Amino acid sequence: MDxxxxxxxxxxxxxxxxxxxLGFHERIKAWRRETGRILTPYVGDLQDYRFTLKMxxxxxxxxIVHFAEQRSAPYSMIDRDHAVFTQINNVVGTLNxxxxxxxxxxxxxxVKLGTMGEYGTPNIDIEEGFIEIQHKxxxxxxxxxxxxxxxxxxxxxxxxxxxxxxxxxxxxxxxDLNQGVxxxxxxxxxxxxxxxxxxxxxxxVYGTVLNRFCVEAVLGxxxxxxxxxxxxxxxxxVKDTVRCIEIACENPPERGDFKVYNQFTEELxxxxxxxxxxxxxxxxxxxxxxxxxxxxxxxxxxxAHTKLIDLGxxxxxxxxxxxxxxxxxxxxxxxxxxLALVNPNIDWRQTERQEPLWTDLAGEPRPTTVxx
Amino acid sequence: MDxxxxxxxxxxxxxxxxxxxLGFHERIKAWRRETGRILTPYVGDLQDYRFTLKMxxxxxxxxIVHFAEQRSAPYSMIDRDHAVFTQINNVVGTLNxxxxxxxxxxxxxxVKLGTMGEYGTPNIDIEEGFIEIQHKxxxxxxxxxxxxxxxxxxxxxxxxxxxxxxxxxxxxxxxDLNQGVxxxxxxxxxxxxxxxxxxxxxxxVYGTVLNRFCVEAVLGxxxxxxxxxxxxxxxxxVKDTVRCIEIACENPPERGDFKVYNQFTEELxxxxxxxxxxxxxxxxxxxxxxxxxxxxxxxxxxxAHTKLIDLGxxxxxxxxxxxxxxxxxxxxxxxxxxLALVNPNIDWRQTERQEPLWTDLAGEPRPTTVxx
Lengths: 372, 372
What we know:
The structure is a homodimer. By secondary structure, chain A is α/β, with parallel strands linked by helices. In chain A, 36% of the residues lie in helices and 16% in strands. Chain A has a domain of 250 residues: Rossmann fold. In chain A, strand 3 and strand 4 form a beta hairpin.
């Protein structure tokens, strides 16, 4: 199902996908042509409860993969309206699904995309969803304490909390996939035909870090590292994203059980990623720009991520060849790129939309000093 | 400020305050008459961002006491619409306040009413907002893991998380008062004159446990204990509620600091409360009814609550005289009571409004067996 809000946001931001993507119905037709498989499209908004009920009743799913959330942290930090839109869209859409499942389809397995960003960067090891805490001589296994760093990340924590309660209360089945930062462009499925291509976001609002660095390096824009680049994040190839979702669907929890997996394959550091991209494009320049986010410049980061591997995930780790594949997509779509979009122009510390923090595309790199 | 939504909910539920209360403007006039003090009324909804901005700009507050939330767990569990209303009302109202403060009044101190119900009933001691966790040889102080037990309690956790982020991000000042279950009717201020009386909720949706037991005992209704009555909760006298808010306002945090206090004075057990009420009204009958909520029948409960006492709170502990004072209010307003309202008629396990779980006012007590 789709309500096309992501395409509408492209109109709002003046942004686009670096590689061209067809419409919803055209892609469904292409999928049928290439694979013989029929997908049933539903057009509507999860915020609309009647639509959600009708869809669940009509399709009678055994599993639902829930991607229908506003998924950009910078977008949620543009101003009050974007923060409120993000939290209402995500919380109400998920509540509607939970109620519809409890009412019509309590046996159905909800697979929800979460984010590693829910955890923030605590000074202890991050576990998968829950942690055993020993305190004053007593012990309990409790939800891992979260420290989300944007109104988007907060909305995902709200959803995780709502789902955990609903699973306990109505004896539903749900899996939360706390996904790391995704890179890469194609999957086995989208690679079948160009008509199946998926979005390649490269802008400062929706583009993820490695994809953005590749665009910058290929197109002659400085590689923009936020702050010192000391941020470490769990990351994964988009090919592994789809495999993880498949694994989750193949392993539904019991009724009343909420599984939480940390969905990433390796921990990578933003500064080191910039170096790796630069090494493959020695003509590129690394530029440290003031960090628009409020996050720790350097921090401890170690997160468990064994559950999906135990269930059969074979990680694609980041190779130079994979980076070169991304370069290739950028080169092939060079004429579609709008370089001004790659800069971070949403400042976490402001309450209203500001001029871009840094727009000096042609000039000398700024000094690497960062106020943080 | 008020948007009168609580009075509107009385219309929806067919409920009322046991003691009569005047309108907003009449109470403000009475306050001026009795004390010489002028209160400035604002009529509007915190969900309206323009209203919120105008109010903050016009009044230019040094502190805001934020009570503007839908505050009933059963109300939030009526059905999907009431769950969504509760979460949107509470989350958006609080987001609007945070944005308005960040934009116009970042020095202002936000005092937010939270609830002890955010914590649930973990098998370890509950701390005040944060807990030091030692894990695999490392240590951090992290937000205390929450296990809220209704969509209302979840909305409060969402708010606590949003506030913590906003305080860090914009360097605001905020205090979260995780309040226990309130009992009692009058405060020093409302006792000045009957025109200043505040609500006395006795229904199964908004009435809190001790007040409801007193109504039942005085009016000849069985004292309805949910399940075995093994639930232990932090509780406090409404007189202490207002003193705690005063203490919070007198002790603003530094900019960028989020204080969390557990606001209750003693831990009381529901079954024992029923016994205490019964002992003062020996003609009353205690009746165990199926628990409409999903909560543990018996559990560990020990929660820190020293910070407000360290700041000067002198607790009013629950005495038989205090219970008799509540009896007196019930007797004085006997003719206003609608006894059918005291029964729990919202079942946590249902997704849509049901017939009351238990309406047999005249008959024999049901057996105390509870499925839980």
